[in-house]
Write a structure and sequence with these properties.
By secondary structure, the protein is α/β, with parallel strands linked by helices. The chain has a single domain, classed as Metallo-beta-lactamase, Chain A, CATH 3.60.15. The protein is 31% helix and 23% strand. The chain has 5 helices and 6 strands; from the N terminus they run αββββαβααβα. The chain has a 6-stranded mixed beta sheet with strand order 1-2-3-4-5-6, with helices on one face. A hairpin with a 2-residue loop joins β1 and β2.
Length: 137
């Protein structure tokens, strides 16, 4: 593996809060806080291409998480309303938590593996507001 962005790794080693970082052209890494967790944050990724902006794993659904995501988008020259797609790698709350809020702010589609989608119903009782999943196309 070749590290293309070092600021966030250096911050992790120093146990400081990492910056939003453009790790390569049109790929941004955004730290989004995880409440009461020794990991401190998850990394959300912003992928830009032409007029499309995709967010990968938007982060934990808290106000602090939303503000961190919005600030990361701003640093990358965008806003929540500019997001056209959301990719969820898996449905842990630190990856999928802000998906519904970001979709509501942007109208973006949400994509995830069908097995992850199918498991959402088993988690419905745990969520204060059940996520709505929409599919592109």
């Amino acid at each position: 593996m070749r590290v293309t962005g070092t600021a966030q790794r250096d911050a992790w080693v120093a146990r400081t809060w990492p910056p939003v970082e453009e790790v390569r052209a049109d790929l941004w890494s955004v730290p989004v806080p995880i409440p009461d967790n020794p990991l401190r944050y998850t990394l959300t990724y912003l992928l830009a291409s032409d007029s499309k902006l995709v967010v990968v794993d938007p982060g934990w659904d808290t106000e602090a998480g939303w503000l961190a995501l919005a600030e990361g988008l701003k640093t990358a020259g965008a806003a929540p309303a500019d997001v056209t797609g959301i990719v969820v790698t898996h449905i842990h709350p630190d990856h999928h938590g802000l998906s519904a809020r970001l979709r509501d702010a942007s109208g973006a589609w949400i994509a995830m593996h069908p097995a992850e989608r199918d498991s959402l119903m088993s988690l419905r009782w745990q969520a204060p507001r059940p996520p709505r999943v929409t599919w592109p196309g």
